[in-house]
Amino acid sequence: MSEFVILVLFGLGVGVLIGTTGMGGGSIMTPLLILVFGIKPTVAIGTDLAYAAVTKTVGGWRHWRQGPVDLKLSFWLGLGSIPAAITGVWMLHFLERIAGDEFDTLVISMLSAALLVTGVAVSWRALSGVDVASRERETIDLQRRHKIAAVVTGALVGFVLGLTSAGSGALIAVSLILLFRLTPHRVVGTDVFHAAILLWAAGIAHFVSGNVDLVMAGSIMVGSIPGVWLGSHLAMRLPPEGLRPALGIVLLGAGLAVLTKAGIAVPPIVIVGVPAVLAVLAWLLHLRRSRIRSREVTIGETV
């Protein structure tokens, strides 16, 4: 199978994931470019951001048309994330000058750390027994503290994105859930819409720095654009209960695998075992919650 076909298929899969969950773009594609194609880490990061900017723009437009986008919250997130992302790109080149031959290993280690943090955050949200559904809301009346929280959150995520290309979806989504308690569909729409703006800033900065392989980015977009279009359509229909743990499992597996590229001896049993254990836990938790819901429905019908 040719490299072009593989890139298109990877792009299609990641595009669907972005459209349905708002997450998984840089967190999945950058490790694939490094692990599967052996791309230089900085070029993998820049290329990923370039294709993702176009892909999430399509997804953001689709979500905006369908309604689940909080434009005011996106604005305050962007106020912090856009300058921070450009700063992250600058910091990446600063590290390249001072790290020398150890730079690639340093970048891979930072990428792995970002993947593991986002994987843990998403997995915790999916597997925790905390009942946040009853407190979720379609929108939020932004007070000063909410605006400050949005700017700070955006700045932190934007900086990580500029350095590693990871986190624009997963970390923002977790913040929208935990800090602002938006409903899942509102989270996905707002997340994708904000990420589209953020990725253009970071992608252009990387392009100016010479870190973008335009041919590779174009090949990925052949699959990712129809993928995100399809995923955005499915987002309003798919249950988030299955998507969240699946994404968390993938992110943790990718983070552990990328660690091996940094020269850290992670046993294969750990790379495979940790995601497998999480998958089993997610399945058991799903069965338990399904039984609880069934009993509640039965009790309600008998009352």
Q: What would your notes on this structure say?
A:
81% of the residues lie in helices and 0% in strands. With 303 residues, the chain is mainly alpha-helical. The termini are far apart.
Features of the shown structure:
single chain; 303 residues; mainly alpha; 11 helices
Structural class: mainly alpha
* Amino-to-carboxy terminus distance: 60 Å
**Range of helix content:** over 70%
Question: How large is the share of residues in beta strands?
Answer: under 5%
The overall strand count is 0
* Uncertain runs: none
Q: Helix count?
A: 11
Biggest β-sheet, characterized?
Answer: none
Mean pLDDT: 78
Which geometry do the CA atoms define?
A: globular
Strand/helix succession: HHHHHHHHHHH
Rg on CA atoms, Å: 19 Å
Quick rundown:
The protein starts with a helix and ends with a helix. The model has no long low-confidence stretch (mean pLDDT 78). By secondary structure, the protein is mainly alpha-helical.
What's the helix and strand layout?
Blueprint: H1 3-21, H2 25-35, H3 41-66, H4 71-99, H5 103-127, H6 144-164, H7 170-178, H8 184-208, H9 214-235, H10 240-261, H11 268-302
Helix pairs in contact: 1-2, 1-9, 2-3, 2-10, 3-8, 3-9, 4-5, 4-6, 4-8, 5-10, 7-8, 10-11
